[in-house]
Amino acid sequence: MKKKLIAGNWKMNGGLAANEALIRNLLAGLGTPGCQVALCVPTAYLAQCHDLLNGTGIDLGAQDVSQHEAGAFTGEISCAMLKEFGARYCLVGHSERRQYHAETDTVVALKAQRALASGITPIVCVGETLAEREAGRTEEVVKRQLAAVIHANGHCISEIVLAYEPVWAIGTGKTASAEQAQQVHAVLRAQLKAASSQSDRILLLYGGSMNPVNAAQLLAQADIDGGLIGGASLKAPDFLSIIASAG
Ligand code: PGA
Question: Nearest Cα to 191, choosing from 228, 221, 149?
Fold first, then answer.
């Protein structure tokens, strides 16, 4: 059976002292986890977190990457740079990037492609807004977002991690019920199956206000292979508790 993945997304939070304290507390309480664990940290802290996490049971991830290889793209970070700091994962297409940085399905697909070509596992995020859910468009939206990534990546699609994050559940304290989440995960799983004979290996994470109280029920669903954790990943006891639920 494939091991679940619990990935923290620190977003634009942290500081040198706070990061070190958080990572030391996580490592002190981690033991031998029954799942894979990763932290997606702000770019500015990749070097620090690489030093602190190197050789431990926690993998390092970034939160975004350029779709370009190198060159005149002021402010952007390349996959090669992420690799130098030992990043194994990179979030791609998080709803905050789609919403505040106008990332289109096409850009997200190119970023995933660039990451895969560089040996970084993209954690591709899809999810509907509240208005889209209320209009009955959830399936249509997530399928369209995933289709762009499948189209650009062909058979390599089996190398991605996919995260379903309903936008209305992110940072709001409103979680999708386990049934709501499973329903969408099943749709995404079927879409991946149709695209690749290797789709069984793809981890499908749920994200959106996952916390120590609701994690076990979400993680028990047939098509939920882990979690992408924002707020709760900033508190060592909460993140450790979610990791324990995934074991
Ligand atoms: P949240 O964020 O857990 O704070 O809702 C999840 C995410 O945006 O990845």
Answer: 149
Q: One-letter amino acid identity for 19?
A: N
Decide: residue 240, CB within 10 A, 0-12 exposed, 13-18 middle, 19+ buried.
buried
pLDDT higher than threshold 90 for residue 172: no
Of 49, 119, 126, the closest CA to residue 90 belongs to: 119
Quote the CA–CA distance of 1 and 50 in Å, as a whole number. 29
Q: Assign 1 a pLDDT band (cuts: 50, 70, 90).
A: confident
Atom index in ligand 1 nearest the CA of residue 9 equals 9
Give the mutation target among 12, 41, 162, 170 for probing the ligand 1 site: most ligand atoms within 8 A of CB. Answer: 170
The residue whose two tokens read 């189209």 is 151
* The pair of three-digit structure tokens given for residue 137, joined into one six-digit string: 């468009």
Question: Whole-angstrom Cα distance, residue 76 to residue 189?
Answer: 32
How would you write 64-102 as a 3-class SS string? Answer: CCCCCCCCCCCCCCCHHHHHHCCEEEEEECCHHHHHHCC
Compute, in angstroms, the gap from residue 71 CA to the centroid of ligand 1. Answer: 32
Per the structure block, which two tokens stand in for 145?
A: 């977002």
pTM: 0.97
Torsional sign, CA 196, 210, 174, 62: negative
Among 94, 128, 132, 159, the active-site one is 94
Thinking of the domain 5-246, which architecture would CATH place it in? Alpha-Beta Barrel (3.20)
Domain ranges of the chain: 5-246
Whose structure tokens read 């490592």? 27
How many Å lie between the centroid of ligand 1 and the Cα of residue 229?
5
- Collect all residues with Cβ–Cβ distance below 8 Å to 184 and sequence separation of at least 6: 138, 139, 142, 164, 166, 176
